[in-house]
Amino acid sequence: MTLHEPYGAVLTISGLRHTIRTRMDIEHSRQDWLLGARMALLRGGVEAVRVEKLARTLGVTKGSFYWHFKDRNELLELLLREWEAEVPELLSEVSREPAGRKIHGLVRLIQRRVKLSDEGKAPSDAAIFSWAAVDPKVARRVNKAEERRIRLLKRFVGVRDRIELFYLLWLGFVARGQRVPKSRKRFPRIARFLVQSLTSSRTAVRMQTRSRGVRRHRAI
Prior knowledge:
Distance between the termini: 101 Å
Low-confidence stretches: 1-21
Number of strands: 0
Oligomer: single chain
Strand content: under 5%
Shape: elongated
């Protein structure tokens, strides 16, 4: 602004700037805030998920946040709730696959989710587990969600004696990925091993079942 600008022009320019800023705030969607919150949680833990910090990262005012969320607690609840729903949603999606391809489909989806979670576009196990380590209430919900995950996976895959073992393997992969991020690139190899092991286990179970049936038939 110069000394020669008329007062009305100053008000117009100021109002225009305010209008542009307000439009920028509104145009940042709920999903933009969730993506920023997921990345903050993954990189800095729950203390990094603060409205002011997220607003600076997104380049908007704090007011933008309140267009979409009541408060920080609502945002944190959404982050936890979307993670709790992730595995049931994945299993629902892959249930449409042919029977012999369901395990392949599930591992393929998980492989895609690993990449998306690193970009903040999907919930991250690593971020949620780190949060649970410092918040007892979150830990209780995570424990219940994990129990449900294992039950669903056992029912879905049908190899009950190995699912828990492989889930523990997954937890180890997640934990190491936090310490050594480049190790996440090895997931495709781990995924192939997982598919081979689970499919071979199912084949072995079927063969054992048939063998018992043949023995019973002979005994009769």
